[in-house]
């Protein structure tokens, strides 16, 4: 019996991600701390407009733990995470926690406004751009999420879908860590 394949099958990055997502496995390219607190990179400040035209700045969340999520309306894993982020926002906002969403949709508000309204997203959402992507190392995959500690340093980075419990554990660790103070 002969086979038409004469070597190993090589799957592209997208195919591997699809297999992982649809098999229910957790996938994250980098879920480890971005570094020891003293060596962690400070999150780049930015200013973007939300759907109402208000300026949203990362610096406005000084002293808070911030979940900064890069996403798109067409991104399947993003659609899974957004309800978790809404829940986290409601649960932890009184403890100094904030969620910021940055859509990377090419058609901007045309897709994003209806999606945010339909899903009842209760945290600030902005439209990202190449400049912001570069500030954060180049956003090559969606979702990409940064957890930023109270001192403004990137504590965790996730590229791809990770479990809700992973986010919750990391958020709680940062909220309970009083060694990081607002220094930005």
List strands and helices in order, with pairings.
Elements: H1 13-22, E1 47-49, E2 55-57, E3 65-71, H2 76-92, E4 97-103, H3 109-119, E5 125-127, H4 130-135, E6 144-148, E7 154-159, H5 164-176
Parallel strand pairs: 3-4, 4-5
Antiparallel strand pairs: 1-2, 3-6, 6-7
Sheet bearing the most strands, described?
5 strands, mixed
Q: List how many beta strands DSSP finds.
A: 7
Mean pLDDT: 83
The helix content, as a percent range, equals 25-40%
Cα shape: globular
What's the CATH class label? Alpha Beta
What would you note in describing this structure?
The structure is a single chain. The protein has 184 residues and is of the alpha/beta class. It has a single domain, classed as Glutaredoxin (3-Layer(aba) Sandwich), CATH 3.40.30.10. The protein is built from five helices and seven strands, in the order αβββαβαβαββα. It has helices at 13-22, 76-92, 109-119, 130-135, 164-176, and strands at residues 47-49, 55-57, 65-71, 97-103, 125-127, 144-148, 154-159. The strands form two sheets. Strands 5-4-3-6-7 form a five-stranded mixed beta sheet, with helices on one face. The chain is globular and about 40 Å long. It starts with 12 loop residues before the first helix and ends in an 8-residue tail after the last helix. 31% of the residues are buried.
């Amino acid at each position: 019996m002969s086979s038409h394949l004469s070597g190993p099958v090589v799957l592209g990055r997208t195919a591997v991600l699809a297999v992982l997502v649809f098999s229910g496995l957790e996938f994250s390219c980098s879920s480890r701390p971005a570094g020891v607190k003293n060596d962690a990179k400070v999150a780049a400040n930015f200013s973007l407009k939300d759907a109402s035209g208000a300026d949203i700045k990362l610096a406005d969340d000084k002293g808070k733990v911030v979940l900064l999520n890069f996403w798109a309306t067409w991104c399947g894993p993003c659609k899974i995470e957004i309800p978790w982020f809404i829940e986290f926002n409601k649960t932890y906002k009184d403890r100094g926690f904030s969620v910021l969403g940055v859509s990377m949709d090419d058609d901007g508000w045309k897709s994003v406004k209806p999606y945010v309204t339909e899903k009842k997203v209760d945290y600030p959402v902005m439209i990202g751009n190449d400049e912001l992507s570069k500030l954060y190392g180049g956003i090559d995959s969606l979702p990409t999420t940064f957890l930023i500690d109270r001192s403004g340093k990137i504590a965790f980075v996730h590229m791809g879908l990770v479990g809700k419990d992973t986010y919750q554990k990391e958020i709680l660790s940062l909220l309970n860590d009083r060694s990081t103070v607002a220094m930005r």
